[in-house]
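Tutorial handout. Part one gives the primary structure; part two gives the three-dimensional structure as tokens.
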Amino acid sequence: RQEVLSNAIGVFHRIVQAHLNLNQPEKALEYIERSKGRNLVELITQKNLHPQGVSQEIITQLNELKQRVVNEQIRLQHQSINQNLMSRDNLTPYVPDHSYLKEYKQDLDNFIAREIKDPLFSLTQKVEPIPFTEIQALTDAETCLLQWYITGEKILAFVVSAEGEVKYWQSSENDKNQLFDKINNYLQLYYSGNGKQEWRNQLSNLLQTFADILHINDILALIPDTCQRLIIIPHWFLHILPLHALPVDPPQLSLKRGESATGGSELQDLFPKGVQYAPSCQILQKISQTSHNSDFNKLFAIQNPTKDLFYTDLEVNILSTFFTEPQVIAKDNATKNAVLPHLKSSDNHCYHFSCHGGFNPANPLESALFLANKEPLTLGEIFELRLNKCRLVTLSACETGMIDINSISDEYIGLPSGFLFAGSPSVVSSLWTVNDLSTSFLMIKLYEILFDENQQVSVPVALKIAQNWLQNLTIEEFDRLLVKYKPEIDQVLIELTPNKKKIIEKQIELTGQRGKYPFANPYYWAAFLASGV
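Part two.
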């Protein structure tokens, strides 16, 4: 199915361009949405998810009706192959009889509509395209959508606001070719054998180049001045870039909203109510429609299961103090057998994973978070969870926001989408192999802001504030933090070997040698993004 959709992508490109040529950007946007995230729903269906709140008898009937559809599909396929083999010389084409298949599918649809009231389950069974009126309904007076789309010839950006008509921007073919070249350069640097050092050194310049190629300032000019919150829906290569951290040339008025240590401004500085991401408008719509729990006092955290992340222990020890009911499973205890029952009981409000993660482009369902003994908690298993009371999942690990960019299908299959479908309205994830030290301080600050009664902000806003704080943190302020957290740091150091203690001391010493703002490089703060609502 993925291959068929990949082969059809060119058709979508041409339909989208045709609607733009006819000055119908709303229709173009509808077709873009039709091509995005379709296999995600197919994959969930393949995992045989069962609806919640129904009897075993209903599940048995459901499975029988599903099997009847599959059996008829197989029968038609065999019949078609046999007819083609028998009548190669016959000029009259064979037309299969799909009447029974249609009848069986209708029976299945009717049964689901009648017997099953679980909206998430219904979503996995049948996907209706989202009309423009519903896309626009995701915006309001303060919220805009920025939807990206890359065709064979150009880069497209659509701005949807509550004001009315869709505004859009089209690149030249040269811009698109430059984007491909720069993405290849970015990935070559990232995966080079020098421990990503050259990639890290060049990251600021690379982000400036991407901002120029994408003409980000021209696109921002299409966004109404009233917009306080931006929802970005990336496409293809753009999923691996921290679009919220692209440098921008804001008008003087906007500079007051936020200015970085380097004296410039990033895209997220222009939106006081945050920048958030979504895989597609339709997935965002489904998340928004689900009722969300406002409680935020029960934490379930996985802490350093592979025992090689020093600052992870510090991070979890401190952030768990914000919650009235924290539950932490640490190190060797964080086995799959110990963790899965807690995830399946799903009565926690926050799930925090401080561990290693990895994306598997060959088989996205095998992408995983790694528990004790490097046991994988796979994306396939995450799809089966129902985190009904969850408000936030934080993946404080490496590459947890990565997706397969080698596929030419319009898919977004990665760990964040798994947790979004499992029921979490918000997921914080990372776009690269992150620094253990800076990530820990960023995460502590994120939770500190979320629990600040004077601020009472959303997850995307809290993340933005925490990232600005880390970016602008001076070496003197960093030293004061080390003093503030000295008891917690000493507690963790006790458990380390002399060699590991030396590594930690050296790391802190090197941080102090990075100038006045040791975490100003986007490498330290820009990796994390907030998906969902």
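Part three, for discussion. DSSP finds 22 helices and 16 strands in the chain. The radius of gyration is 25 Å.
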